[in-house]
Every structure is written in structure tokens, then in C-alpha cells.
Design a protein that fits this description.
Layout lengths: L1 E6 L6 H12 L6 E6 L4 H7 L6 E4 L2 E5 L4 H12 L4
Helix pairs in contact: 1-3
């Protein structure tokens, strides 16, 4: 699985999203994780149709836009990794 977090250095919602995903994905080293600065990677941001940050993709699919809680992120990670409840 691949998780991409698109962020802007000036976005107030981006640092909390980064902290959430860094924390949760630390327990899943098998997950490829990338933080992508939209100001430095405009072409990639345009390719996915990015309109807001943070935007989080799972395997190329936009899953979260602007706001994400730790609980929502954990639920999505576990669902995709098929972690038993």
C-alpha cells in the first residue's frame, strides 16, 4: 500500500495531518509513505486534481481532503491492510 500526503508549507491543517500519519504508519513499515510539497511538485498536484491541502491518497485514490482525525486515518489504514478488529 502507498500513502501520499500532499501539503503546503503555509497550511495550518497540514502539520497535524503529517503527525497523525507519521505516528500511525510507524507501526506499518510495509506501507510506502510520502509527504509531497505541492509548491515543489505542482505537476503531480495537477495530475491528481488537487484543490485543497492536506490531501491524502491511498494507492492513488483521494481519501481525505483538508481534515482528518487520527481515528479516521487509523480506520482507513486498518481497512486497507485488512487488520482484524
Amino acid at each position: 500500500m502507498k500513502v501520499e500526503l500532499f501539503y503546503s508549507p503555509t497550511c495550518p491543517d497540514c502539520p497535524p495531518a503529517k503527525r497523525i500519519f507519521r505516528k500511525l504508519l510507524a507501526a506499518h513499515p510495509e506501507v510506502e509513505y510520502a509527504e509531497i510539497n505541492v509548491k515543489e511538485n505542482r505537476k503531480r498536484a495537477e495530475e491528481i486534481g488537487l484543490t485543497h491541502v492536506p490531501t491524502i491518497l491511498f494507492d492513488g485514490e483521494i481519501v481525505f481532503v483538508e481534515h482528518v482525525t487520527e481515528e479516521e486515518a487509523l480506520r482507513e489504514i486498518e481497512k486497507r491492510l485488512k487488520v482484524p478488529e
